[in-house]
Amino acid sequence: MEIRIDHGGAEEVLKKLDRDEINRLARKVAEKAGDEAVVHEYTTDRAAASVSVPAELQAKHGVLTRAAAEAGLEIRLRK
To answer: Is residue 28 part of a domain?
Structure first.
């Protein structure tokens, strides 16, 4: 079976996501990741946010990965 991603459709959906909801989710991940987590809210052609932790915390303990999963995000390994 072959799956093809509709990039245009995905882009349309992403552009319609509410900035407040995206930022709320990023803050939820950061809260679960701990005191050293930092949220950066920004806008490109769509609302966006990033959450970061010190590299050592992620490398040794997977803090950000666990926090994202606990916040309900789907975590997958890249192939």
So the answer is: yes
pLDDT tens column, 6-23: 777 767 766 777 889 889
14 lies in a domain?
yes
Query: CA quadruple 79, 22, 64, 40: dihedral positive or negative?
Result: positive
Query: What DSSP letter does each residue of 44-78 carry, written as one string?
Result: SSSEEEEEE--HHHHHHH-HHHHHHHHTT------
* Euclidean distance between the first and the last CA atom of the chain, given in angstroms as a whole number: 17
Asked, for residue 46, whether it belongs to a domain, the answer is yes
Give the separation between CA 11 and CA 15, rounded to whole angstroms: 6
Structural domains counted in the chain: 1
79/33 Cα distance (integer angstroms):
25
Inside any domain, residue 79: no
User: The pTM is what?
Assistant: 0.77
